[in-house]
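Task card 7
Instruction: Convert sequence to C-alpha coordinates.
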Amino acid sequence: MAAASSSAPIHYKYDVFLSFRGEDTRYSFTAHLYEALRQAGIATFRDDDEIREGQELKPEIERSITESRASIIVFSENFANSRWCLDELWLILRQKRKGCHLVFPVFYKVDPSDVRNQRGSFTIKAKDGAEGLKWTQDNVKRWKAALSEVADFKGMVVSGYEPAFIRHVVEKVYFELGLKLHRTPTGLTGIETRAEVINSWLRYEQPGSPVLAISGMGGSGKTTLAKHIYYSNKQNFESSSFLEEIQNQPDGLLGVQKKLLIDISGNNNLMISNTFEGALQIEKTIHMNRVLIVVDDIDDKDKLSLLFGTKEFHTQSKIIITTRLLNIDTWFDSIAWRCHVFKMELLNCHESLELLCCHAFGSKIPMEGFKELAVKLAQYCGGNPLALKVLGSSLSNTAQDHWTRNDMIDVWRSRIDSLNSLEGDLDNKIQNVLEKSFKSLPCDSHKEMFLHIACLFVGEYASHVERILENDYHAKSGMVILINRCLISLSRNGLRLTMHKLLQDMTRKIVRNESKDPAKQSRVWRYDESYRLLRKGDGSERIEGLALNMLKFSEGRRSEAFRTSSLVKMKNLKFLHLSGVKLIGSYENFPELRWLRWHGFNLNIIPQGLLMRTLVAIDMSYGKLTKFEMPMV
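Output:
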Protein backbone atom coordinates (compact mmCIF):
# COMPACT_ATOMS: atom_id res chain seq x y z
CA MET A 1 0.00 0.00 0.00
CA ALA A 2 1.26 3.40 -0.91
CA ALA A 3 3.10 5.54 1.60
CA ALA A 4 1.54 8.80 2.59
CA SER A 5 2.60 12.00 0.94
CA SER A 6 4.57 14.60 2.84
CA SER A 7 2.81 17.07 5.06
CA ALA A 8 4.89 19.80 3.36
CA PRO A 9 3.29 22.40 1.11
CA ILE A 10 2.50 21.09 -2.30
CA HIS A 11 5.35 22.86 -4.12
CA TYR A 12 7.96 20.98 -2.07
CA LYS A 13 9.17 17.73 -3.59
CA TYR A 14 11.46 16.69 -0.72
CA ASP A 15 11.58 17.09 3.02
CA VAL A 16 15.38 16.97 3.17
CA PHE A 17 18.32 17.61 0.82
CA LEU A 18 21.33 15.55 1.99
CA SER A 19 24.71 17.19 1.29
CA PHE A 20 27.91 15.22 1.91
CA ARG A 21 31.42 14.38 0.64
CA GLY A 22 31.04 11.11 -1.21
CA GLU A 23 34.54 9.73 -0.73
CA ASP A 24 34.31 10.22 3.04
CA THR A 25 30.87 8.93 4.03
CA ARG A 26 28.90 7.68 1.00
CA TYR A 27 29.12 4.03 2.03
CA SER A 28 29.23 4.51 5.81
CA PHE A 29 27.63 7.23 7.94
CA THR A 30 25.68 8.99 5.17
CA ALA A 31 24.39 5.67 3.82
CA HIS A 32 23.03 4.78 7.25
CA LEU A 33 21.57 8.24 7.77
CA TYR A 34 19.86 8.21 4.37
CA GLU A 35 18.37 4.77 5.02
CA ALA A 36 17.09 5.88 8.45
CA LEU A 37 15.47 8.97 6.93
CA ARG A 38 13.92 6.93 4.14
CA GLN A 39 12.58 4.24 6.47
CA ALA A 40 11.10 6.92 8.70
CA GLY A 41 9.12 8.25 5.75
CA ILE A 42 11.13 11.47 5.32
CA ALA A 43 11.37 12.28 1.62
CA THR A 44 15.10 12.75 1.09
CA PHE A 45 17.15 13.75 -1.95
CA ARG A 46 20.61 12.20 -2.20
CA ASP A 47 22.83 12.51 -5.27
CA ASP A 48 23.78 8.91 -6.03
CA ASP A 49 26.46 9.80 -8.56
CA GLU A 50 30.01 10.81 -7.73
CA ILE A 51 30.83 14.22 -9.26
CA ARG A 52 34.18 13.87 -10.98
CA GLU A 53 36.88 16.42 -11.65
CA GLY A 54 36.03 18.78 -14.51
CA GLN A 55 32.27 18.36 -14.13
CA GLU A 56 29.94 21.22 -13.38
CA LEU A 57 27.44 21.11 -10.53
CA LYS A 58 24.41 19.43 -12.02
CA PRO A 59 21.30 21.62 -12.55
CA GLU A 60 19.14 19.11 -10.67
CA ILE A 61 21.22 19.71 -7.54
CA GLU A 62 20.25 23.38 -7.36
CA ARG A 63 16.66 22.54 -8.26
CA SER A 64 16.48 19.85 -5.56
CA ILE A 65 17.74 22.29 -2.92
CA THR A 66 14.99 24.77 -3.77
CA GLU A 67 12.43 21.92 -3.78
CA SER A 68 13.43 20.78 -0.27
CA ARG A 69 12.13 22.04 3.06
CA ALA A 70 15.47 21.50 4.77
CA SER A 71 19.06 20.39 4.26
CA ILE A 72 21.32 18.13 6.29
CA ILE A 73 24.99 18.97 5.65
CA VAL A 74 27.46 16.26 6.70
CA PHE A 75 30.85 17.96 7.25
CA SER A 76 33.69 15.44 7.01
CA GLU A 77 37.47 15.59 6.58
CA ASN A 78 37.57 16.18 2.82
CA PHE A 79 34.38 18.25 2.53
CA ALA A 80 36.23 21.54 1.86
CA ASN A 81 38.44 19.91 -0.80
CA SER A 82 35.43 19.72 -3.09
CA ARG A 83 34.25 22.90 -4.79
CA TRP A 84 30.96 21.09 -5.53
CA CYS A 85 30.34 20.54 -1.80
CA LEU A 86 31.21 24.18 -1.17
CA ASP A 87 28.87 25.31 -3.93
CA GLU A 88 26.09 23.16 -2.47
CA LEU A 89 26.71 24.77 0.92
CA TRP A 90 26.51 28.27 -0.57
CA LEU A 91 23.26 27.41 -2.42
CA ILE A 92 21.75 25.92 0.74
CA LEU A 93 22.52 29.06 2.75
CA ARG A 94 21.14 31.24 -0.03
CA GLN A 95 17.90 29.26 0.17
CA LYS A 96 17.89 29.65 3.96
CA ARG A 97 18.17 33.43 3.65
CA LYS A 98 14.88 33.42 1.80
CA GLY A 99 13.37 32.37 5.14
CA CYS A 100 11.91 29.07 3.96
CA HIS A 101 14.68 26.51 4.43
CA LEU A 102 16.01 24.81 7.60
CA VAL A 103 19.66 23.73 7.88
CA PHE A 104 20.97 20.88 10.07
CA PRO A 105 24.80 20.81 10.20
CA VAL A 106 26.30 17.44 11.19
CA PHE A 107 30.02 17.29 12.05
CA TYR A 108 31.41 13.83 11.31
CA LYS A 109 34.88 13.35 12.84
CA VAL A 110 35.67 17.06 12.44
CA ASP A 111 35.79 19.99 14.90
CA PRO A 112 33.13 22.69 14.30
CA SER A 113 35.74 25.32 15.19
CA ASP A 114 37.92 24.13 12.28
CA VAL A 115 34.95 24.70 9.99
CA ARG A 116 34.27 28.14 11.48
CA ASN A 117 37.89 29.30 11.25
CA GLN A 118 38.89 27.33 8.13
CA ARG A 119 41.66 25.44 9.90
CA GLY A 120 43.16 22.05 9.17
CA SER A 121 41.37 20.24 6.34
CA PHE A 122 38.98 23.20 6.03
CA THR A 123 41.74 25.59 4.98
CA ILE A 124 40.83 26.82 1.51
CA LYS A 125 42.58 29.26 -0.80
CA ALA A 126 42.62 30.40 -4.42
CA LYS A 127 44.50 28.21 -6.90
CA ASP A 128 46.50 28.84 -10.06
CA GLY A 129 46.45 27.09 -13.41
CA ALA A 130 43.47 25.18 -14.72
CA GLU A 131 41.95 24.79 -11.27
CA GLY A 132 42.14 28.55 -10.80
CA LEU A 133 39.17 28.96 -13.15
CA LYS A 134 36.95 27.73 -10.33
CA TRP A 135 39.06 28.32 -7.23
CA THR A 136 39.02 32.07 -7.78
CA GLN A 137 39.44 34.72 -5.09
CA ASP A 138 35.76 35.61 -5.32
CA ASN A 139 34.59 31.98 -5.00
CA VAL A 140 36.94 31.27 -2.11
CA LYS A 141 35.73 34.39 -0.33
CA ARG A 142 32.06 33.40 -0.51
CA TRP A 143 32.87 29.76 0.43
CA LYS A 144 34.77 30.92 3.53
CA ALA A 145 31.87 33.14 4.51
CA ALA A 146 29.51 30.21 4.08
CA LEU A 147 31.68 27.94 6.26
CA SER A 148 31.87 30.55 9.00
CA GLU A 149 28.13 31.16 8.85
CA VAL A 150 27.05 27.52 8.99
CA ALA A 151 29.46 26.70 11.84
CA ASP A 152 27.61 29.19 14.01
CA PHE A 153 24.35 27.28 13.60
CA LYS A 154 23.37 24.85 16.32
CA GLY A 155 24.81 21.72 14.77
CA MET A 156 25.20 18.08 15.84
CA VAL A 157 28.61 16.49 16.46
CA VAL A 158 28.73 12.73 15.82
CA SER A 159 29.68 10.97 19.04
CA GLY A 160 28.94 7.79 20.98
CA TYR A 161 26.84 4.96 19.56
CA GLU A 162 26.32 5.86 15.90
CA PRO A 163 22.82 4.30 15.40
CA ALA A 164 21.59 6.18 18.46
CA PHE A 165 23.04 9.43 17.07
CA ILE A 166 21.37 8.84 13.69
CA ARG A 167 18.08 8.22 15.48
CA HIS A 168 18.56 11.55 17.26
CA VAL A 169 19.08 13.31 13.91
CA VAL A 170 15.90 11.77 12.49
CA GLU A 171 13.88 12.77 15.55
CA LYS A 172 15.22 16.33 15.40
CA VAL A 173 14.25 16.62 11.72
CA TYR A 174 10.75 15.36 12.52
CA PHE A 175 10.37 17.87 15.33
CA GLU A 176 11.76 20.87 13.44
CA LEU A 177 9.73 20.17 10.31
CA GLY A 178 6.58 19.59 12.34
CA LEU A 179 6.08 16.12 10.94
CA LYS A 180 4.21 13.36 12.72
CA LEU A 181 6.52 10.76 14.18
CA HIS A 182 4.99 8.20 11.88
CA ARG A 183 2.98 8.68 8.73
CA THR A 184 0.32 6.04 8.33
CA PRO A 185 0.05 5.10 4.64
CA THR A 186 -3.02 6.37 2.85
CA GLY A 187 -5.82 4.03 1.88
CA LEU A 188 -5.55 1.88 5.03
CA THR A 189 -8.46 1.05 7.27
CA GLY A 190 -8.54 -0.82 10.55
CA ILE A 191 -4.79 -0.76 11.05
CA GLU A 192 -4.81 1.18 14.32
CA THR A 193 -7.16 -1.29 16.03
CA ARG A 194 -5.02 -4.22 14.89
CA ALA A 195 -1.88 -2.47 16.10
CA GLU A 196 -3.10 -1.93 19.66
CA VAL A 197 -2.30 -5.45 20.88
CA ILE A 198 1.19 -5.43 19.36
CA ASN A 199 2.00 -1.96 20.67
CA SER A 200 1.03 -3.16 24.13
CA TRP A 201 3.32 -6.19 23.75
CA LEU A 202 6.21 -3.94 22.70
CA ARG A 203 5.86 -2.03 25.96
CA TYR A 204 5.90 -5.29 27.96
CA GLU A 205 9.40 -5.60 29.46
CA GLN A 206 9.46 -9.28 30.50
CA PRO A 207 12.70 -10.74 29.05
CA GLY A 208 11.23 -14.18 28.29
CA SER A 209 8.79 -12.90 25.66
CA PRO A 210 10.91 -11.33 22.92
CA VAL A 211 9.16 -12.70 19.82
CA LEU A 212 5.78 -12.02 18.21
CA ALA A 213 4.56 -13.60 14.99
CA ILE A 214 1.94 -11.93 12.79
CA SER A 215 0.31 -14.89 11.02
CA GLY A 216 -2.24 -14.98 8.23
CA MET A 217 -3.01 -15.79 4.61
CA GLY A 218 -1.23 -14.06 1.75
CA GLY A 219 -2.41 -10.51 1.10
CA SER A 220 -4.03 -10.15 4.53
CA GLY A 221 -1.91 -7.09 5.42
CA LYS A 222 0.76 -8.70 7.61
CA THR A 223 3.64 -6.72 6.08
CA THR A 224 1.68 -3.46 6.10
CA LEU A 225 0.86 -3.90 9.78
CA ALA A 226 4.47 -4.84 10.60
CA LYS A 227 5.77 -1.70 8.86
CA HIS A 228 3.25 0.47 10.68
CA ILE A 229 4.31 -1.01 14.02
CA TYR A 230 8.01 -0.72 13.14
CA TYR A 231 7.98 2.93 12.11
CA SER A 232 5.70 3.86 15.02
CA ASN A 233 8.00 2.32 17.64
CA LYS A 234 11.59 2.21 16.32
CA GLN A 235 12.46 5.49 18.01
CA ASN A 236 11.91 3.79 21.40
CA PHE A 237 14.80 1.36 20.80
CA GLU A 238 18.56 1.81 20.66
CA SER A 239 18.60 0.54 17.07
CA SER A 240 16.33 -1.27 14.66
CA SER A 241 16.22 -3.28 11.45
CA PHE A 242 13.50 -4.25 8.97
CA LEU A 243 14.43 -7.34 6.95
CA GLU A 244 12.30 -8.08 3.90
CA GLU A 245 12.53 -10.47 0.94
CA ILE A 246 15.20 -12.48 2.73
CA GLN A 247 14.45 -15.43 0.46
CA ASN A 248 15.67 -13.46 -2.59
CA GLN A 249 18.85 -11.81 -1.27
CA PRO A 250 21.74 -12.18 -3.81
CA ASP A 251 24.27 -12.93 -1.05
CA GLY A 252 21.99 -15.44 0.65
CA LEU A 253 21.50 -15.62 4.38
CA LEU A 254 25.03 -14.37 5.06
CA GLY A 255 24.10 -11.11 3.32
CA VAL A 256 20.95 -10.85 5.44
CA GLN A 257 23.02 -11.33 8.61
CA LYS A 258 25.45 -8.60 7.54
CA LYS A 259 22.62 -6.13 6.88
CA LEU A 260 21.03 -6.95 10.23
CA LEU A 261 24.34 -6.49 12.08
CA ILE A 262 25.06 -3.17 10.36
CA ASP A 263 21.56 -1.94 11.26
CA ILE A 264 21.62 -2.92 14.93
CA SER A 265 25.32 -2.41 15.73
CA GLY A 266 26.18 0.57 13.55
CA ASN A 267 29.48 -1.10 12.67
CA ASN A 268 29.92 -1.10 8.91
CA ASN A 269 33.27 -2.89 9.12
CA LEU A 270 32.14 -6.11 10.80
CA MET A 271 33.80 -9.17 9.27
CA ILE A 272 31.86 -12.44 9.29
CA SER A 273 32.91 -15.31 7.06
CA ASN A 274 30.00 -17.71 7.63
CA THR A 275 26.46 -17.83 9.00
CA PHE A 276 27.59 -19.46 12.27
CA GLU A 277 29.79 -16.46 13.07
CA GLY A 278 26.97 -14.15 12.01
CA ALA A 279 24.48 -15.81 14.37
CA LEU A 280 26.93 -15.47 17.29
CA GLN A 281 27.42 -11.75 16.57
CA ILE A 282 23.66 -11.21 16.29
CA GLU A 283 23.02 -13.07 19.57
CA LYS A 284 25.61 -10.90 21.30
CA THR A 285 24.19 -7.64 19.96
CA ILE A 286 20.57 -8.54 20.76
CA HIS A 287 21.60 -9.56 24.26
CA MET A 288 23.60 -6.40 25.01
CA ASN A 289 21.31 -3.82 23.40
CA ARG A 290 17.59 -3.12 23.23
CA VAL A 291 16.81 -3.44 19.53
CA LEU A 292 13.70 -3.82 17.40
CA ILE A 293 13.87 -6.31 14.52
CA VAL A 294 11.21 -7.22 11.96
CA VAL A 295 11.69 -10.28 9.73
CA ASP A 296 9.12 -10.19 6.94
CA ASP A 297 7.68 -13.31 5.26
CA ILE A 298 9.55 -16.27 6.71
CA ASP A 299 8.39 -19.88 6.84
CA ASP A 300 11.69 -21.72 7.24
CA LYS A 301 12.75 -22.70 10.77
CA ASP A 302 16.37 -23.30 9.74
CA LYS A 303 16.73 -19.77 8.35
CA LEU A 304 15.28 -18.32 11.53
CA SER A 305 17.72 -20.36 13.63
CA LEU A 306 20.66 -19.20 11.50
CA LEU A 307 19.58 -15.59 11.91
CA PHE A 308 19.15 -15.59 15.68
CA GLY A 309 20.92 -18.76 16.80
CA THR A 310 19.55 -21.43 19.14
CA LYS A 311 21.20 -20.37 22.37
CA GLU A 312 19.00 -19.42 25.30
CA PHE A 313 19.61 -15.90 26.61
CA HIS A 314 17.61 -13.07 28.14
CA THR A 315 17.05 -9.88 26.22
CA GLN A 316 15.01 -6.68 26.26
CA SER A 317 15.00 -6.66 22.46
CA LYS A 318 11.85 -7.33 20.47
CA ILE A 319 11.56 -9.45 17.30
CA ILE A 320 8.49 -9.38 15.06
CA ILE A 321 7.98 -12.01 12.35
CA THR A 322 5.41 -12.10 9.57
CA THR A 323 4.52 -15.56 8.34
CA ARG A 324 1.79 -17.68 6.80
CA LEU A 325 2.32 -20.29 9.55
CA LEU A 326 0.05 -20.48 12.59
CA ASN A 327 2.27 -22.89 14.56
CA ILE A 328 5.47 -20.86 14.32
CA ASP A 329 5.51 -20.48 18.13
CA THR A 330 6.67 -24.11 18.47
CA TRP A 331 9.94 -23.19 16.74
CA PHE A 332 11.10 -21.28 19.81
CA ASP A 333 10.48 -23.99 22.39
CA SER A 334 14.06 -25.26 22.11
CA ILE A 335 15.53 -21.94 23.31
CA ALA A 336 12.88 -21.30 25.97
CA TRP A 337 11.64 -18.15 24.23
CA ARG A 338 7.95 -17.50 24.32
CA CYS A 339 6.54 -16.52 20.94
CA HIS A 340 3.20 -14.73 20.88
CA VAL A 341 1.09 -15.46 17.78
CA PHE A 342 -1.07 -12.62 16.50
CA LYS A 343 -3.53 -14.01 13.95
CA MET A 344 -4.19 -11.36 11.32
CA GLU A 345 -7.87 -10.48 11.19
CA LEU A 346 -9.28 -9.81 7.76
CA LEU A 347 -11.28 -6.62 7.22
CA ASN A 348 -14.95 -6.54 8.14
CA CYS A 349 -17.66 -5.51 5.67
CA HIS A 350 -17.47 -1.79 6.47
CA GLU A 351 -13.65 -1.70 6.34
CA SER A 352 -13.60 -3.70 3.09
CA LEU A 353 -16.00 -1.34 1.33
CA GLU A 354 -14.04 1.69 2.54
CA LEU A 355 -10.69 0.32 1.32
CA LEU A 356 -12.13 -0.72 -2.04
CA CYS A 357 -13.66 2.74 -2.56
CA CYS A 358 -10.39 4.48 -1.65
CA HIS A 359 -8.66 2.74 -4.55
CA ALA A 360 -11.58 2.71 -6.99
CA PHE A 361 -13.07 6.19 -6.45
CA GLY A 362 -10.53 8.10 -4.35
CA SER A 363 -13.01 8.43 -1.49
CA LYS A 364 -14.36 6.32 1.35
CA ILE A 365 -17.80 5.90 -0.19
CA PRO A 366 -18.90 4.54 -3.60
CA MET A 367 -19.56 6.86 -6.49
CA GLU A 368 -23.22 7.38 -7.38
CA GLY A 369 -24.56 4.34 -9.22
CA PHE A 370 -21.78 1.99 -8.01
CA LYS A 371 -22.84 1.15 -4.45
CA GLU A 372 -24.44 -2.23 -5.17
CA LEU A 373 -21.54 -3.28 -7.40
CA ALA A 374 -18.95 -2.10 -4.87
CA VAL A 375 -20.64 -4.11 -2.11
CA LYS A 376 -20.62 -7.24 -4.30
CA LEU A 377 -16.95 -6.81 -5.17
CA ALA A 378 -16.02 -6.20 -1.53
CA GLN A 379 -17.90 -9.36 -0.55
CA TYR A 380 -15.99 -11.36 -3.15
CA CYS A 381 -12.65 -10.19 -1.70
CA GLY A 382 -13.61 -11.58 1.69
CA GLY A 383 -11.77 -8.91 3.68
CA ASN A 384 -8.41 -9.48 1.96
CA PRO A 385 -6.71 -6.03 1.68
CA LEU A 386 -4.50 -6.99 -1.27
CA ALA A 387 -7.48 -8.10 -3.34
CA LEU A 388 -9.47 -5.00 -2.41
CA LYS A 389 -6.58 -2.77 -3.43
CA VAL A 390 -5.74 -4.57 -6.69
CA LEU A 391 -9.31 -4.97 -7.90
CA GLY A 392 -10.29 -1.48 -6.78
CA SER A 393 -7.33 0.07 -8.60
CA SER A 394 -8.01 -2.00 -11.75
CA LEU A 395 -11.56 -0.60 -11.87
CA SER A 396 -10.61 2.93 -10.85
CA ASN A 397 -13.15 5.49 -11.96
CA THR A 398 -13.36 9.16 -11.08
CA ALA A 399 -15.19 10.25 -14.21
CA GLN A 400 -18.11 12.60 -13.61
CA ASP A 401 -19.45 12.40 -17.16
CA HIS A 402 -22.80 10.53 -17.21
CA TRP A 403 -22.02 8.39 -20.28
CA THR A 404 -18.51 7.48 -19.13
CA ARG A 405 -19.94 6.47 -15.75
CA ASN A 406 -22.50 4.20 -17.43
CA ASP A 407 -19.75 2.54 -19.46
CA MET A 408 -17.75 1.92 -16.28
CA ILE A 409 -20.80 0.39 -14.59
CA ASP A 410 -20.93 -2.16 -17.42
CA VAL A 411 -17.19 -2.82 -16.96
CA TRP A 412 -17.74 -3.42 -13.23
CA ARG A 413 -20.62 -5.83 -13.91
CA SER A 414 -18.52 -7.76 -16.42
CA ARG A 415 -15.58 -8.06 -14.02
CA ILE A 416 -17.78 -9.20 -11.13
CA ASP A 417 -19.43 -11.82 -13.37
CA SER A 418 -16.01 -13.19 -14.35
CA LEU A 419 -14.89 -13.36 -10.71
CA ASN A 420 -18.06 -15.10 -9.56
CA SER A 421 -17.83 -17.72 -12.28
CA LEU A 422 -16.26 -21.10 -11.50
CA GLU A 423 -13.32 -20.45 -13.81
CA GLY A 424 -10.94 -19.19 -11.15
CA ASP A 425 -10.35 -15.97 -13.12
CA LEU A 426 -8.12 -14.33 -10.49
CA ASP A 427 -5.98 -11.23 -11.05
CA ASN A 428 -2.34 -12.24 -11.59
CA LYS A 429 -1.04 -9.91 -8.86
CA ILE A 430 -3.31 -11.58 -6.31
CA GLN A 431 -2.58 -15.04 -7.74
CA ASN A 432 1.20 -14.63 -7.37
CA VAL A 433 0.98 -13.58 -3.72
CA LEU A 434 -1.44 -16.34 -2.72
CA GLU A 435 0.42 -18.98 -4.70
CA LYS A 436 3.53 -18.53 -2.53
CA SER A 437 1.79 -20.47 0.25
CA PHE A 438 0.94 -23.29 -2.15
CA LYS A 439 4.45 -23.49 -3.56
CA SER A 440 5.99 -23.54 -0.09
CA LEU A 441 4.18 -26.75 0.90
CA PRO A 442 6.88 -29.30 1.81
CA CYS A 443 5.50 -32.33 -0.05
CA ASP A 444 3.84 -32.93 -3.42
CA SER A 445 1.20 -35.00 -1.61
CA HIS A 446 0.21 -31.89 0.37
CA LYS A 447 -0.16 -29.91 -2.85
CA GLU A 448 -2.27 -32.59 -4.51
CA MET A 449 -4.49 -32.92 -1.45
CA PHE A 450 -4.97 -29.15 -1.31
CA LEU A 451 -6.00 -29.06 -4.98
CA HIS A 452 -8.55 -31.82 -4.38
CA ILE A 453 -10.01 -30.05 -1.35
CA ALA A 454 -10.30 -26.71 -3.17
CA CYS A 455 -12.00 -28.20 -6.22
CA LEU A 456 -14.22 -30.85 -4.63
CA PHE A 457 -14.35 -30.94 -0.84
CA VAL A 458 -14.92 -27.40 0.52
CA GLY A 459 -17.90 -27.55 2.88
CA GLU A 460 -17.55 -31.30 3.53
CA TYR A 461 -17.05 -32.82 6.98
CA ALA A 462 -13.34 -32.65 7.78
CA SER A 463 -13.29 -36.12 9.36
CA HIS A 464 -14.87 -37.64 6.23
CA VAL A 465 -12.41 -35.93 3.88
CA GLU A 466 -9.53 -37.03 6.08
CA ARG A 467 -10.55 -40.70 5.75
CA ILE A 468 -11.18 -40.39 2.00
CA LEU A 469 -7.74 -38.86 1.29
CA GLU A 470 -5.64 -40.66 3.92
CA ASN A 471 -4.39 -43.63 1.88
CA ASP A 472 -3.30 -41.55 -1.11
CA TYR A 473 -2.15 -38.32 0.55
CA HIS A 474 -1.53 -39.01 4.29
CA ALA A 475 -4.35 -36.60 5.06
CA LYS A 476 -4.16 -36.78 8.87
CA SER A 477 -0.80 -35.01 8.92
CA GLY A 478 -1.37 -33.13 5.67
CA MET A 479 -4.51 -31.35 6.83
CA VAL A 480 -2.70 -30.12 9.95
CA ILE A 481 -0.04 -28.59 7.69
CA LEU A 482 -2.66 -26.94 5.46
CA ILE A 483 -4.42 -25.44 8.49
CA ASN A 484 -1.14 -24.21 9.98
CA ARG A 485 -0.30 -22.50 6.69
CA CYS A 486 -3.66 -20.69 6.59
CA LEU A 487 -4.68 -22.51 3.41
CA ILE A 488 -7.74 -24.23 4.87
CA SER A 489 -9.70 -23.75 8.07
CA LEU A 490 -12.57 -25.32 9.97
CA SER A 491 -16.09 -23.97 10.35
CA ARG A 492 -17.10 -22.36 13.63
CA ASN A 493 -18.34 -25.67 15.01
CA GLY A 494 -15.04 -27.29 14.00
CA LEU A 495 -16.70 -29.88 11.77
CA ARG A 496 -16.56 -28.76 8.14
CA LEU A 497 -13.71 -27.68 5.87
CA THR A 498 -13.73 -24.04 4.81
CA MET A 499 -11.47 -22.03 2.53
CA HIS A 500 -11.19 -18.36 1.66
CA LYS A 501 -12.80 -17.69 -1.73
CA LEU A 502 -9.60 -16.14 -3.07
CA LEU A 503 -7.56 -19.21 -2.12
CA GLN A 504 -10.11 -21.42 -3.81
CA ASP A 505 -9.96 -19.31 -6.97
CA MET A 506 -6.15 -19.33 -6.83
CA THR A 507 -6.17 -23.13 -6.66
CA ARG A 508 -8.67 -23.55 -9.45
CA LYS A 509 -6.58 -21.27 -11.64
CA ILE A 510 -3.59 -23.56 -11.06
CA VAL A 511 -5.68 -26.51 -12.27
CA ARG A 512 -7.06 -24.63 -15.26
CA ASN A 513 -3.53 -23.64 -16.28
CA GLU A 514 -2.67 -27.34 -16.69
CA SER A 515 -4.41 -27.24 -20.08
CA LYS A 516 -6.98 -25.24 -22.02
CA ASP A 517 -8.73 -28.57 -22.71
CA PRO A 518 -10.78 -29.65 -19.63
CA ALA A 519 -10.24 -33.28 -20.66
CA LYS A 520 -6.53 -32.83 -19.93
CA GLN A 521 -6.98 -31.17 -16.55
CA SER A 522 -6.63 -33.12 -13.30
CA ARG A 523 -9.95 -31.92 -11.82
CA VAL A 524 -13.17 -30.85 -13.53
CA TRP A 525 -15.66 -29.04 -11.28
CA ARG A 526 -17.46 -26.74 -13.70
CA TYR A 527 -20.74 -28.38 -14.52
CA ASP A 528 -20.87 -27.15 -18.13
CA GLU A 529 -17.41 -28.63 -18.80
CA SER A 530 -18.25 -31.92 -17.04
CA TYR A 531 -21.46 -32.11 -19.09
CA ARG A 532 -19.61 -31.69 -22.39
CA LEU A 533 -16.99 -34.28 -21.41
CA LEU A 534 -19.59 -36.94 -20.58
CA ARG A 535 -21.79 -36.08 -23.54
CA LYS A 536 -18.95 -36.32 -26.05
CA GLY A 537 -17.03 -39.07 -24.30
CA ASP A 538 -13.87 -36.93 -24.16
CA GLY A 539 -12.55 -38.12 -20.78
CA SER A 540 -8.85 -38.91 -20.32
CA GLU A 541 -6.47 -40.58 -17.87
CA ARG A 542 -5.47 -37.15 -16.58
CA ILE A 543 -8.74 -36.57 -14.72
CA GLU A 544 -8.72 -37.53 -11.01
CA GLY A 545 -11.85 -35.71 -9.82
CA LEU A 546 -15.12 -34.73 -11.51
CA ALA A 547 -18.36 -33.06 -10.38
CA LEU A 548 -21.63 -32.73 -12.32
CA ASN A 549 -25.01 -31.52 -11.06
CA MET A 550 -27.69 -31.88 -13.73
CA LEU A 551 -30.22 -30.12 -11.50
CA LYS A 552 -28.42 -26.88 -12.43
CA PHE A 553 -29.41 -27.32 -16.08
CA SER A 554 -32.70 -26.64 -17.85
CA GLU A 555 -35.60 -29.11 -17.71
CA GLY A 556 -34.88 -30.30 -21.24
CA ARG A 557 -31.37 -31.43 -20.41
CA ARG A 558 -32.08 -33.05 -17.05
CA SER A 559 -33.51 -36.21 -18.59
CA GLU A 560 -30.44 -36.74 -20.79
CA ALA A 561 -28.46 -39.92 -20.09
CA PHE A 562 -24.71 -40.42 -20.49
CA ARG A 563 -22.81 -43.57 -21.35
CA THR A 564 -20.60 -45.16 -18.71
CA SER A 565 -17.86 -45.48 -21.34
CA SER A 566 -17.20 -41.75 -20.96
CA LEU A 567 -16.12 -42.36 -17.35
CA VAL A 568 -14.32 -45.63 -18.12
CA LYS A 569 -11.84 -43.57 -20.15
CA MET A 570 -10.92 -41.72 -16.96
CA LYS A 571 -8.77 -44.56 -15.63
CA ASN A 572 -7.27 -42.48 -12.79
CA LEU A 573 -10.58 -41.04 -11.60
CA LYS A 574 -10.72 -41.24 -7.77
CA PHE A 575 -13.42 -38.76 -6.74
CA LEU A 576 -16.82 -38.61 -8.43
CA HIS A 577 -19.65 -36.29 -7.36
CA LEU A 578 -22.88 -36.63 -9.35
CA SER A 579 -26.34 -35.15 -8.75
CA GLY A 580 -29.37 -36.02 -10.89
CA VAL A 581 -27.15 -37.79 -13.43
CA LYS A 582 -28.35 -40.84 -15.41
CA LEU A 583 -25.75 -43.31 -16.66
CA ILE A 584 -26.38 -46.21 -19.05
CA GLY A 585 -24.04 -48.97 -20.14
CA SER A 586 -21.60 -51.45 -18.61
CA TYR A 587 -19.66 -50.75 -15.39
CA GLU A 588 -16.94 -53.19 -16.32
CA ASN A 589 -13.46 -51.60 -16.03
CA PHE A 590 -14.99 -48.63 -14.21
CA PRO A 591 -12.37 -46.43 -12.50
CA GLU A 592 -11.33 -47.52 -8.98
CA LEU A 593 -12.98 -44.73 -7.01
CA ARG A 594 -12.12 -43.65 -3.45
CA TRP A 595 -15.22 -41.46 -3.07
CA LEU A 596 -18.56 -41.71 -4.80
CA ARG A 597 -21.42 -39.32 -4.14
CA TRP A 598 -24.33 -39.91 -6.45
CA HIS A 599 -27.42 -38.03 -5.34
CA GLY A 600 -30.57 -38.98 -7.24
CA PHE A 601 -29.18 -42.40 -8.27
CA ASN A 602 -31.65 -43.73 -10.86
CA LEU A 603 -31.34 -47.50 -10.26
CA ASN A 604 -32.75 -49.79 -7.54
CA ILE A 605 -29.53 -51.80 -7.14
CA ILE A 606 -25.92 -50.68 -7.38
CA PRO A 607 -24.21 -52.45 -10.30
CA GLN A 608 -21.38 -54.80 -9.25
CA GLY A 609 -18.74 -52.94 -11.23
CA LEU A 610 -19.48 -49.78 -9.30
CA LEU A 611 -18.94 -51.22 -5.81
CA MET A 612 -15.18 -51.71 -5.92
CA ARG A 613 -12.97 -52.48 -2.93
CA THR A 614 -11.11 -49.17 -3.25
CA LEU A 615 -14.14 -47.18 -2.10
CA VAL A 616 -13.65 -45.35 1.19
CA ALA A 617 -16.91 -43.38 1.22
CA ILE A 618 -20.16 -43.73 -0.71
CA ASP A 619 -23.25 -41.51 -0.58
CA MET A 620 -26.31 -42.52 -2.65
CA SER A 621 -28.90 -40.25 -1.02
CA TYR A 622 -32.16 -39.01 -2.60
CA GLY A 623 -32.28 -41.79 -5.22
CA LYS A 624 -34.24 -44.96 -6.06
CA LEU A 625 -31.84 -47.37 -4.36
CA THR A 626 -33.72 -50.20 -2.53
CA LYS A 627 -30.88 -52.64 -1.88
CA PHE A 628 -27.27 -52.03 -0.88
CA GLU A 629 -24.51 -54.63 -0.80
CA MET A 630 -21.09 -53.82 0.63
CA PRO A 631 -18.22 -54.14 -1.85
CA MET A 632 -16.03 -57.24 -1.59
CA VAL A 633 -12.73 -56.47 0.22
